Amino acid sequence: MDQSAPQPAPQPARGCIEAVPAETALARARGNPLRRYPAPDRDGDRLYPLAAPSAVPSFTIGPEDTVFAIGSCFARNIERALSEAGLRVTSREFDLGPIGASLGQASNFFNKYTIHSVLNELRWALERDSFPGADVLCDLGRGRWADPQLGIARLEFPLEQVLEFRHRYLDAMAQVATADLLVVTLGYVESWYDRKLGLYLNLAPPVQAVKAEPGRYEFRVLGHDEVLDGLEQVHALLSRHRGRPPKMLVTVSPVPLLATFRETDVLVANAYSKAVQRAAVESFVARYDGVDYFPSYEFVTLSDPNVAWSRGDYRHVSPDLVDRIMAEVLARYMRRDAGAGGAPGPAAAASTPQALTATMRMLLKLGEVDELRALAEARRDMVDADADALLLEAAAARRQRDLEAAFAALERARALDPARPDALERLITICRPLRRRAAARRLRDQHEGAFPERAAFRARLDWI
Hints:
This protein is α/β, with parallel strands linked by helices and 464 residues long. It is 46% helix and 10% strand. A five-stranded parallel β-sheet has the order 2-1-5-9-10, with helices on both faces.
């Protein structure tokens, strides 16, 4: 064989999302500090107790950029965190009229649980002629309507008012065309399909509707290709109506299925649901510039479940962990010098005061006091400017019997915020093991002058 003859370029195997020469792969491996899976003696704090997966941004977010978030209930957490960080989140700017005002937050009609329900609303908002109108509604009788594309609310209003409300909702969705960044959060792959209209629903149709029209609705479980196709249709739709391709940040919601309609264990059904969406997002991100995946799913599911979930139900993500995740988003995307080289671990995901105190609270709950105090030292400037952080540092020091350090932290917390009683009360309490009765009496007198209404606390100080 003539070795000098030109060789055909290698073709990637069917279904691969990436194919690079071996030399490139080896060079990347040598330059990737996060290549190896953490172990107890190497980068262990990047995984346990609080996971800190890294992200490599392909774009930045400026303080003047607007954000539109859509998707499952975790998207509401993202909206709140970005808004509190000072960004304008246009998906929170809406006027839904009297019906919207009467429903309040109970309707959940901003939650979109599948990629196709996201696509439906954006298409109808940007191409209003495609909206099916009253056909999307289910007549429940006695002047009540349900919209399986929205939330669980029953709309007890005349049909014309319901449709007016529906168009107000689409006006709110249409703001996506002017947003600088679209954040999409995927929820589930268990879906419901309306065969009459030829479209997916957001929620299961009401039982009354199923009984009224047998055969109209069917349950479907999406696969990788269906999820990927939905993402690509969203991208194409926005590209048509924006004049430029959108910047997109795609996440997979860590919130698990409440229940399954499949004949399988809900744990197995949920694992499939998240895995197939995660795989589809990886394929999607590989195909487009300006489209990133952010690992909020990994932040939650790889962290200690004792602090990952709130309400004790294994489903609702702890607000502290949400703050930690969004701090990482801001640190990675709003700082031009942040990237793969940023330091992993708890300190990297505690780059804002809110995220710092959230991380410290979670570490204290887990009993990881060594790590908490190390984090406090690493963020000393931020801790010393935040009374809550100093109280957490004092609690960790006391657990380690380092009473002098605890006392000093409490004094700094009290100086920062003298109007709150807890720092002073903890100072008085810690005087007992320190055998500082004279100091305790002096602090008690100050407490009586500053907080006369808290006599019950002073009544417990008989040891003074």
